[in-house]
Structures are given as C-alpha cells and as structure tokens.
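user: Kindly work through both lines:
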Amino acid sequence: MAEDYSTEIYRQMEDPGFYPHPANRVEIRETHISKVFLVGEYVYKIKKPLNLGFLDFTTLEKRRYYCLQEVALNRRLSVDIYLDVIPITLDGDTYRLGGSGPVMEYAVKMRRLPDHCTMTHRLETGGLEQAEIDHLTDVLVTFYDQPQDPAQTSEFGSWSVVSGNCDENFTQTAPFAGKLFDERIFEIIRGAVTTFLKRRKPLFDMRVETGKIQDCHGDLRTDHIYFIDDTLQIIDCIEFNPAFRYGDVASDLGFLVMDLDKRGHAAVAATLITGYIQRTGDANLFVLIDFYKCYRAMVRFKINCIRAQAPDITEDEKTGLLAGIKQYLDLAYDYAIRFTRPVLWVVCGMPASGKSTVAEKLGEALRIPVFKSDIIRKEHFASPTENFSHLPFESGIYSKRITALTYGRMMLLAQEEIEKGNSVILDATFSACHFRREAIRLAADKDANIFFIECTAPEALLKKRLSKRNNQTSLSDARLIHFDALRNSFEPLVEIHPDQHIVVDTEMTVDACMSRILYDKYMTLPKNREITRHLDEKQKTCLKTS
C-alpha cells in the first residue's frame, strides 16, 4: 500500500514549507529507484517501494534498512555529507520530517554538493590538475586496502561468478540484436569475453587468493566524484545489493576508467590506472583492466537496452538511449579487440643493456612466457653449460648461419603461442633490421600487436657490465673484447613506428624501467586492431625487401 501514500508524501515535499529549515524552492530529481528533493543546503532521498529482482524496497522496514546502509557505506568515501536517516511521520493529514506521529516513510538526509564540482563538470570545463588526479588515486588505494572478510566477499570475484555475470549480460541483451544494435559486433564481443575467461581462469583464481576481491563502491563514475576546494567526496555507492558492490578492485576501477573513456578523457583514465598500479604494485591490472572495462560497458549497454523498451519513455529519451547503446557497444568492442589480440613483445638492445632482466620482469608482470635467444641457441646448437666467451665475433655458434637458425626457432615458438591467442616476449639483441622485420611480419600475419622495447645504457656502463662477466657465470657469452664489433653491427631501430617503440635506459632500476614501459608508455600507446597494419614507409620497405 506504499504507493497509496507515497504520491501524497512526494506532493507535500514539493512545498518549501515542508522543511524545518530555510528553503526558497524545491528541486526534484528522479531515478528509477529513488525520488530526490534538493532543498537549500540539503538533499532528501526517498527509496521507491519497488521490487526489481536485484533490489527489494517493498516494505517500510526494508526501506529503513537500506537507508541506514546507504548512510553507513557512503561515509567510507565522504565526510560530513551523509547526515542521517529521517523518519517521515503522519500527523492527521500532514506529513512531517521527524514528527511524533506514526512513521510512514524514511529519507536519507544529505548535505548538498555543488554540481559544478563533479568530476564530470570539471573535466568538461577545463580539466583536473595532476595533484587532483593523484589525490583521487591515493583515496582509492587506501579504500581498496581496507581489511575485508574474505568469506564474505571472495566468491563475488571468482571465475564462476564473473563468468556467470558476463553470460547474464549477453543472455539478457541477445533478444534485442538486430533491432537495437549490430548483431555481428555483439557476437564478436561475446566470443572475445568467452575466450578470455577460458584462457585466464588461473588469473581470476589468483586474484581471489591474493585478496583483490573487496567491498567496493559498485557505481564508481565521474558523476559521483566531487572535487571541492582541497577535499574529495565520493558518493552514491551501491547499497541495495552487496553482489553489485563486492568484486575485484579491477572491476570497480574499470567502471570509472570506462566512464572516462566514454566521455573522451582516455588520457586521464590511463593516468589514474598507471598511478594506481605504481602505488600498489598490482601489475595484473594491465591484463585485466580492458576486460573489466568491457564488462562494465556491457552492463551499461544492457541497462540502456532494457530501458529503451519501456513504454513510458519519451521519443527524446529513446533517442538518447539508442545513442548510448551504440556508444557502449562500440566501447566494449574496442576493449574486446584489445584484450583478445595477443601482443608480441620484442625486448632488444646491445649485450649487457639489461634486456634479459627487463624481459623477465615484464613476463612476471604480464604473466606471459619469455623466449630467450641465448637459451635457444645453446639448447639447439651447443651445450648450455659450455663457455663460448673466447670465440671471435660471429664465429662458432655465433656465426651468421647459427644466429639465423636461432632467430628462426625463436620466431616459431612465438608463432605457436600467438596462434593459441597468447602474448609472448622475445629476448634477443635484434641488432639486424632483417630480424626485426621478421618479427613485424609475424605480428602482421597473425594479426597481433607488436611492441619493441629497446634497452639502452651509457657506453661506459655497458663496458663495465661486460667486464664483470669475466668473473661471473653468465648465460650470454658476449664479453668486453666483443664490444666494438657488437656496437658497429647494431643497426638503429629507425624503421620502427613510434607507436611501437619504447626506449628504456637501464641505468635506472628495473622497477623504474617497468614504470617507463608499462606506466608511462604502454597504457598511452594505441592498441587498436590497426596498429600492425599502420606501418610507416620504412617498415613497408623492409617487408618488401625481405
């Protein structure tokens, strides 16, 4: 019977005189689950008496409970905003806030936040300072690091639950294919998500085991983040269903960065994610973030599809929903292409440039195999324990013929992984242009992304490292006596497209090198399906002359 009196409550709350504080006018906003009254410095939010399956507000006691939940949960990320839960009582024919009569409804009382301080508005009207993005990142790092009860949250980030959620999205939206959206694009996304889940089950299991499943926000988007002077307020988390709030921190962050991408602020999204990874060391986000962005885009896509079928929407609303359906589907498609396409990482440079250390660290971060030319050369053409450091340059197992066979074997191993849909790292000098163009050809033929990580160091440091090898065990047989010949034979990477070329100075620490590769460069490089076809004239020439 709540509907019988809720209409009258709403009518009386539209009167500024209803409130026990100064109010010149009442502004009303409405969502599908709430009625919101903005009155002077305050906001009163009432939950509609609905049962939508994923939420149940049908009884007064349930609405009271979820009002209390809303206040408690949102105080985690805001200060002095969620003030109280106020009973709405009936005195004769008059409803009152906090009166002495029988309680008929409950309202969450909030302090009103200025619209011009939302992250959305700030980005649209001038942008954010780096310090503000850093502040937001720090707040989220602290928030996701709060102690949790794994027994309560872990299952929601499990492979089976995530797979089930994805299946549900596709099942619920499939009937609209061909009517509201392009069925071909939809099926590509579905196939990409299914494949990713099958291949990456161990990663989801590991996320659960390492405590990455948290009681999160659940609805983290730019409209809910406020920058007010030197303070940050984040509001409107999901309170009505913990299953929508519990999950991998990558999923929660994925919602925010997807929203930033949709609004045209991909650079801010990349800065936020890389800053988060730098602070937490959670390098698995590089593997997961596009998947979870795709998932979040498909959730919003689903909501728009369902809403577009409602009989009570206007033509203008439907036009907006249809535009949103296309936009979210296009976003999901781009993400799906990115997380599905394998990447061929070529870590190259002079001997003693630190490339093997960088390759190993990159493999650990991305959880992908590393194929080393030094190991392949000795496994196939000599004993791995034999010392060949005394050999002259380009002789014995380092002759041009053996080197070509070594690179050929390494390319075959990479091809096998790429054909399985896996990314792979190649660790070798790649000093000759023709070996690099073979890697480019392999990526192009197999429709894989390719990135060259060129490791460099000052000449004096290279020589110092080579000298140390005289007294140390080293997989590589390059020594100081070979330096001049190695340097003179190394052909600069001038043919590599800038979008595929990342240079790191290994005089820095290996962690700083990873920051350069993954945080400063990789997250901001194009990763769309055209990158391996977008070869400059020098690359095309190399391919033609091979």
Remarks:
- Confidence is low (pLDDT under 50) at residues 528-546.
- Residues 2-112 form a domain with the Phosphorylase Kinase; domain 1 fold (CATH 3.30.200).
- The CA atoms of residues 453 and 502 lie 5 Å apart.
- The chain has three domains: 2-112, 119-339, 341-544.
